[in-house]
Inverse folding.
């Protein structure tokens, strides 16, 4: 039996870099430095989007090579001689030793969604520079660090979930607060994602048709996999993707038919459709809808990311907006209100720092890791890839005509809803845009209108369509637009299905504490009622967003961003706690710096959203303003009736209360953790729930590409295993 | 073995691993090694699907 388990890489800890390595890394550093310099010094001239792209890639490479390795070896002290839970508890089900590259794919598919696509598009109103800097610096110092550390700590605890770890390592109070926060934040995230889909599909028969067809396509795939060809996943996915492309093409033809009119749905109708769909999807067996849809969306996700990277390099588009716009400094942007600090940091959540990832990094992925050192490539590397998606989305929003950008992203109350009024409104912002240009832009992608198509998805689709048309030619602008809408809607719907299910399990588990039978996930009354409660919760928030006269995205997106970042605060708080409990106060700055920065931005943003006396920012100030006007018998624009006045008052109050609740829950967790920090610092460390070390029998390379040394070690190990079992 | 063939094999291996199709082969192999009659693919896949039913596998935003 081979027990040699740790294979050292050349250049690994304690080794010197080779001259070739030094030359390559110097070259990468130079590329990055040149790109950043160009971005920093360009003022008022045309800047190519490729500078952003390569600044990002060079920065990621250096961060991965040096900072992530430093965290792995010095801070966390990963030990490849120690068996992972996948090895110790292997059961072929959830605990399963998985090839590092395959697990990287699984993990990335689980963390990447619509978040990194939407946030950067909205943040583009502040110019290209704030978003670029925050996405790149944020992911390197905060987001990827959080994902990797949570993954490591959960792995050392047999894959415990974030909530369980907070309860066991911080305390019962913090644990309960974290549990409530996770549930509430998930509801908001589902509602905002659903809102993005509603806004992308409303009044768009092509979109409704092709997205609608994904349901029968997924059902077909589900039955095909279950009854006709069990287990042939790639074959089924290939058929599904083919049908999906056909559905997009067919959508272009139904516009002028009678069906086109039937499928021109209002925001309210779509909301009801989505709520009904969400409920049905979450109670159906997963093989019918959720699993096949997941295959489709994963395939589309990877396909579009690859296409976007290739398209950007081929099209080499120039950025159309300023580096930093006046909205960033004055806080009066039409897309969302608030100044650069703190609002750029909460608008771009996923892609820079996403608390939601902590839920994936604890629980599922840690139970499949083969070697401890893999937390670097899976946790840190996976998040870098997500950040790259965010950079792609930011570029797509910055390369379209900025008059068009603001006409699409300003709420209907501001643009007035028609091409003429929108052109006039955009003129007041300082952009020249004729109503004709706006109508033509809509006609080019075969949409009835592009005015006030808020939510980010249509803007991203226009940007992607422009980049792909430039890169690949062929005059397929309308196809690419709907291809991009399909891609976003597909994985938002997957997230809604899966999120509702996860919410249902959480609810059943919680109620199960007082009524044990309710926790049985196969007991139908419990499953159905819990699903209904979850759907009702996000459905209500979705309805609030859809009908809000002030514009749902404008109102709800900050709530989404802040809550995601607050979840990150809970995760980072846990990391700090564990560093101190393990007696590693020396390296505690690694999670502490991002935690402090995250708390500063989210608490400032929360404070402003709750207490600001500027009605454009503060929810309660807004409610007061409309209440005073209503009591005086007035109707304040953009509301057009007394009913809408009441609606604004209710919505703003609900949003304000939620915002306050989230902030308070996080403060509770942080305070509870601070007590543990002081105790741990005084004692120089405290016992934790870390599982004792067991020697590992597995040999596996540490990084994406195996070195010759590692390959030889793996070969020797496999041979010894074969002779061992033959005996 | 040309580079193209190697690349194709690599992609094929990755897709089969990532979709879980390779699991069936592993199962059949294990059964052969242990001298057990494997269950039908249909029954085996159904068993896996039922397990997925109660699996908390989230998807992120």
């Amino acid at each position: 039996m081979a027990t040699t388990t740790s294979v050292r890489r050349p250049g690994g800890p304690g080794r010197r870099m080779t001259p070739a390595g030094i030359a390559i890394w110097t070259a990468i550093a130079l590329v990055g430095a040149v790109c950043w310099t160009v971005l920093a010094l360009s003022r008022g001239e045309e800047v190519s989007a490729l500078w952003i792209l390569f600044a990002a890639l060079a920065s990621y490479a250096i961060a991965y090579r040096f900072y992530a390795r430093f965290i792995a070896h010095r801070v966390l002290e990963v030990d490849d001689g120690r068996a992972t839970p996948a090895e110790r508890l292997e059961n072929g089900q959830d605990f399963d030793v998985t090839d590092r590259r395959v697990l990287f794919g699984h993990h990335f598919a689980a963390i990447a969604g619509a978040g990194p696509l939407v946030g950067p598009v909205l943040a583009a109103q502040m110019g290209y520079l704030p978003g670029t800097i925050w996405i790149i610096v944020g992911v390197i110092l905060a987001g990827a660090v959080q994902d990797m550390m949570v993954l490591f700590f959960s792995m050392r605890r047999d894959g415990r979930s974030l909530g369980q770890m907070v309860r066991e390592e911080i305390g019962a109070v913090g644990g309960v607060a974290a549990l409530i926060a996770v549930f509430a934040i998930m509801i908001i995230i589902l509602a905002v994602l659903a809102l993005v889909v509603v806004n992308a599909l409303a009044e768009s028969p092509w979109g409704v048709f092709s997205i609608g067809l994904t349901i029968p396509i997924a059902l077909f795939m589900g039955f095909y996999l279950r009854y006709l060809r069990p287990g042939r996943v790639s074959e089924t996915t290939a058929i599904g993707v083919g049908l999906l492309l056909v559905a997009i093409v067919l959508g272009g033809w139904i516009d002028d038919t009678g069906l086109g009119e039937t499928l021109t749905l209002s925001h309210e109708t779509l909301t009801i459709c989505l709520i009904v769909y969400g409920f049905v999807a979450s109670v159906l067996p997963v093989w019918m809808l959720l699993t096949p849809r997941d295959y489709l969306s994963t395939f589309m996700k990877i396909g579009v990311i690859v296409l976007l990277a290739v398209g950007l390099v081929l099209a080499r588009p120039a950025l159309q907006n300023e580096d930093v716009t006046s909205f960033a400094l004055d806080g009066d942007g039409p897309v969302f209100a608030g100044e650069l600090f703190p609002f750029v940091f909460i608008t771009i959540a996923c892609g820079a720092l996403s608390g939601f990832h902590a839920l994936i990094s604890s629980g599922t992925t840690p139970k499949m890791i083969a070697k401890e050192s893999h937390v670097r490539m899976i946790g840190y590397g996976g998040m870098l890839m997500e950040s790259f998606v965010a950079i792609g989305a930011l570029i797509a929003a910055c390369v379209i005509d900025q008059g068009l950008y603001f006409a699409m992203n300003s709420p209907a109350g501001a643009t007035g809803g028609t091409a003429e009024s929108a052109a006039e409104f955009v003129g007041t912002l300082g952009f020249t845009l004729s109503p004709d240009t706006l109508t033509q832009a809509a006609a080019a992608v075969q949409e009835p209108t592009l005015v006030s198509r808020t939510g980010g998805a249509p803007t991203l689709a226009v940007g992607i369509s422009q980049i792909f048309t430039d890169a690949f030619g062929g005059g397929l602008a309308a196809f690419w637009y709907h291809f991009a809408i399909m891609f976003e809607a597909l994985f938002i719907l997957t997230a809604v299905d899966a999120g509702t299910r996860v919410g249902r399990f959480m609810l059943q588990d919680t109620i199960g504490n007082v009524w044990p039978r309710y926790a049985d996930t196969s007991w139908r009354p419990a499953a159905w009622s819990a699903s209904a409660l979850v759907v009702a919760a996000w459905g209500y928030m979705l309805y609030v967003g859809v009908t809000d006269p002030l514009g749902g995205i404008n109102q709800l997106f900050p709530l989404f961003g802040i809550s995601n970042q607050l979840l990150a605060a809970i995760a980072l708080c846990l990391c700090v706690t564990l560093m101190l409990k393990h007696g590693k106060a020396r390296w505690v700055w690694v999670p502490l710096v991002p935690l402090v920065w995250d708390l500063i931005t989210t608490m400032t943003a929360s404070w402003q959203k709750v207490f600001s006396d500027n009605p454009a920012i503060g929810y309660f100030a807004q409610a007061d303003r409309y209440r005073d006007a209503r009591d005086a018998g007035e109707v304040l624009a953009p509301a057009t009736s007394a009913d809408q006045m009441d609606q604004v008052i209710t919505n703003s109050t609900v949003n304000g209360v939620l915002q306050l609740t989230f902030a308070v829950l996080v403060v509770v967790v942080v305070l509870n953790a601070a007590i543990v920090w002081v105790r741990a610092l005084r004692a120089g460390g405290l016992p934790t729930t870390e599982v004792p070390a067991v020697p590992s029998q597995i040999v596996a390379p540490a990084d994406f590409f195996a070195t010759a040394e590692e390959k030889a070690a793996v070969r020797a190990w496999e041979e010894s295993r074969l002779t061992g079992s033959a005996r | 073995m040309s580079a193209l063939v190697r690349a194709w094999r690599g992609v094929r291996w990755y897709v089969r691993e990532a979709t879980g199709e390779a699991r069936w082969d592993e199962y059949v192999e294990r059964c052969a090694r242990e001298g057990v009659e494997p269950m039908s693919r249909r029954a085996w896949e159904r068993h896996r699907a039922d397990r997925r039913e109660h699996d908390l596998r989230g998807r992120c935003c």
Summary: The interface with chain A takes residues 14-21, 24, 41-42, 44-46, 49, 51-61 of chain B (CB under 8 Å). The mean pLDDT of chain B is 88. The longest helix of chain B spans residues 3-19.
